[in-house]
Specification:
about 170 residues, alpha+beta, Arc Repressor Mutant, subunit A, Alpha-Beta Plaits, 4-stranded antiparallel sheet, two-stranded antiparallel sheet, elongated
């Protein structure tokens, strides 16, 4: 199953460090192309994996990253916490809805059919909230064309992430 393989790849990288696609493919008994697609999916989900080309290269997690997962045999997906929201409510520009359709991020963006753009040309929409981290990656993919309205926890986490990004890129 793909989800199990993704978690296993994440745990292998977390425990062993840098590994080539060929080594991961041999261990998991899949093709190298499957490993490359999996690494792309993990990166899209917000897992900080980077690749190094050439001799001694491979895939590696950012040094300070810790998934907090157990080993693959005992890992079980965490259920949704009681009381946590199932969907995020956002305002998006018409351009952002097109970009979201092209990028597939967020994967479940829904604009009500009867919804008309407000005075500023923006629409209200919702998307499925799997986790705060994946939602942050989805929102950042749309740039300034999206505004999180609810839940407040996502809005706060996004503001913190944006503040950290702004510190990395100060204005000249």
């Amino acid at each position: 199953m793909r989800a199990e393989r993704l978690v296993t790849e994440l745990l292998i990288l977390e425990r062993r460090g840098r590994m080539t696609a060929a080594a991961l493919a041999d261990e998991l008994e899949v093709s190298e192309r499957t490993v490359l697609r999996d690494m792309e999916s993990l990166q899209a989900a917000g897992v900080p994996i980077f690749s190094i080309r050439g001799v001694g290269g491979g895939f590696q997690l950012v040094e300070e990253y810790a998934s907090g997962l157990a080993d693959p045999e005992t890992w079980r997906p965490a259920g949704r916490r009681p009381g946590s929201p199932r969907r995020a409510r956002v305002r998006v520009s018409v351009d952002a809805t097109r970009r979201a359709a092209l990028l597939g991020r967020p994967p479940s963006l829904r604009v009500r059919r009867a919804e008309l753009p407000d005075d500023t040309g923006w629409l209200t929409a919702t998307f499925r909230l799997e986790s705060i981290e994946s939602a942050i990656a989805d929102v950042l993919a749309l740039g300034p064309e999206i505004e999180v309205l609810e839940p407040i926890g996502l809005r706060t986490a996004l503001a913190e992430r944006a503040r950290r990004i702004a510190e990395l890129y100060p204005a000249p």
